[in-house]
Design brief:
315 residues; alpha/beta; UDP-N-acetylmuramoyl-L-alanine:D-glutamate ligase; 8-stranded mixed sheet
């Protein structure tokens, strides 16, 4: 699907999520049949989720990632097209299998996942498409160790020099290394979006507030936004660190809620809203995303999210 120049280019993981909800246990033997209350298959991956949520809010999004030339890849493409996400820069590899993530939501509230190979991706794969928008988001930086170091620094310098708003979300480390990959990177980011565990590991600080302070002070990004789930978020910028309470909903699935937050935070930043208004807007969008399976499914237009945010937070 072709479109105008995108507001947002997401770069990173693209996959198909198979969500099994309402599971008591997973059998280990063929003769025992397991049961799920509900099942969904959705276009996913952290780059995929961010692009779809951004588009649902009303922005123009383009995804740069890699899929295989297979039936799973066709399902992924269909999901992007349903959300009006541009796939003209999505790489289709004839010799690869599209990543599949099976996510199991247990009746006791726990969840687990099994993931197939994350297809390798390099900045060279994308050519000049990475600098053609208004914002660039590296979704799942720690999932791509082959890019770390000089390659990554060169990439972030290039997109920043092109005048784009630059953001990144680490996701879980593919190697167990957390802090070193970000050396020379943070100073090129407008915003670092991450959860509490990621913030503590990357900053090497135990307390979340100390982690935000360390990330900001050590040649850090302009803004740090830490996602706290049911506790809301913390935003740090300039000499301020603020906690924003959560927007309350009854969640069905939290899969991809952090990606919905990222999409909404980038959306608000491109509107030149204040950091705190943007954080409140992102809180609301992320909360709404948990009310259906597939984080982008429940996301409304930005005007609706903004209205709900004003009513709840009083801004």
């Amino acid at each position: 699907m072709d479109m105008e120049v995108p507001n947002l280019i997401t770069f990173g993981e693209v996959a198909l999520d198979i969500i099994l909800a309402g599971v008591d246990e997973v059998p280990r033997r063929w003769a025992v049949l397991g049961h799920a209350r509900e099942a969904r298959a959705v276009t996913a991956g952290t780059a995929g989720y961010v692009a779809q949520c951004f588009s649902k809010l009303g922005g123009r999004a383009s995804v740069v990632g890699k899929i295989g030339d297979d039936n799973v890849g066709k399902l992924v493409l269909d999901g992007f097209h349903r959300c009006a996400v541009s796939t003209k820069n999505l790489i289709v590899d004839d010799n690869a299998n599209t990543e599949i993530s099976t996510v199991i939501l247990y009746n006791d509230g726990n969840k687990s996942s099994v993931v197939s190979e994350i297809l390798p991706l390099t900045p060279e794969d994308a050519g000049n498409s990475l600098t053609s928008g208004k914002a660039f988001h590296f979704a799942g930086f720690l999932l791509y160790p082959k890019i770390w170091g000089k390659r990554a620094i060169s990439l972030f310098k290039r997109v920043r020099k092109s005048g784009l708003f630059v953001s990144a979300d680490p996701q879980m480390s593919a190697t167990g290394v957390w802090a070193k990959p970000f050396e020379g990177i943070l100073e090129h980011l407008d915003v670092l979006l991450l959860d509490e565990e990621e913030a503590r590991r990357i900053s090497r600080r135990e307390r979340t507030l100390d982690a935000v302070d360390k990330l900001l002070l050590t040649n850090g990004p302009r803004i740090v936004a830490v996602k706290l789930g049911a506790k809301g978020c913390i935003v740090g910028y300039a000499d301020r660190i603020r906690h924003i309470r959560a927007y309350k909903v009854t969640p069905v699935s939290t899969i991809g809620a952090g990606d919905a937050f990222d999409a909404a935070f980038i959306f608000g930043s491109l509107k030149n809203w204040s950091v705190e208004k943007t954080g409140r807007f992102a809180n609301v969008a992320a909360a709404i995303s948990t009310t259906q399976y597939g984080c982008m499914t429940a996301i409304p237009r930005a005007k609706t999210v903004e209205k709900l945010s004003r009513a709840y937070y009083g801004d």
